[in-house]
Design goal:
CATH class: Alpha Beta
CATH architecture: Alpha-Beta Complex
Number of strands: 8
Shape: globular
Radius of gyration: 16 Å
Order of helices and strands: EHEHEHEEHEHEHHE
Number of domains: 1
Number of helices: 7
Strand content: 15-25%
CATH topology: Spore Coat Polysaccharide Biosynthesis Protein SpsA, Chain A
Distance between the termini: 28 Å
């Protein structure tokens, strides 16, 4: 049903935190596969992928190129893009399933974006206030994750591997009318 693509930078802890939040989705049969696309130079993420039962893809290049490479390797009709370190709250499985069913049965393509939530363990900073205001003005950020049908992703051109702001470009292409802000929260450290 769903392929999850997580670009990593060779750091174990953020990847493990994100994977731990996905375990109930895999147990429920919502997640078909998880692809860890690592841009780091060590074999740390390859070991994490092996232990967690994920697919591993070593990659040199930009984050956008890593996301595009992961999407090409994915086999499911739905794609979920998450940053390493992003943790979904408990209600994401049911809401994601309902969202996929609603969009699949309608003739209108839509993408889902999770509701941003700052980690309760992070120290509040002035920068967080500016990010909140920016999200209110410009819309969601790439760190909020993206849930999108593969055919819709392909029609939009996906992530441009050579673009620095490819994630933001794809969110802009979706526009307000074809994206849904899901109730489930995603905690970003």
């Amino acid at each position: 049903m769903l392929s999850v693509i997580i670009p990593t930078d060779g750091l174990e802890q953020p990847a493990v935190a994100t994977l731990a939040a996905l375990v109930p989705g895999a147990a429920a049969g919502v997640i078909r596969e998880v692809l860890l696309v690592d841009r780091g130079d060590s074999d740390t993420i390859e070991r994490v992928a092996d232990v967690a039962g994920c697919h591993f893809l070593a990659f040199k290049g930009t984050r956008a190129a890593a996301l595009a490479a992961g999407a090409r390797q994915a086999r499911s009709p739905w794609l979920m893009f998450l940053h390493a370190g992003a943790v979904l709250d408990n209600g994401w499985i049911e809401e994601t399933t309902q969202f996929i069913q609603r969009v699949s049965s309608s003739d209108r393509p839509r993408a889902g974006i999770f509701r941003y939530a700052r980690s309760p363990y992070a120290d509040p900073r002035l920068r967080d206030g500016f990010k909140f205001i920016a999200r209110m003005i410009t819309g969601p950020s790439a760190e909020q994750g993206l849930l999108i049908a593969r055919d819709h992703y392909d029609r939009l051109g996906g992530y441009a591997p050579d673009s620095r702001r490819s994630e933001a470009r794809l969110l802009r292409q979706l526009g307000r009318s074809s994206r849904t802000l899901l109730r489930s929260r995603i905690m970003v450290a």
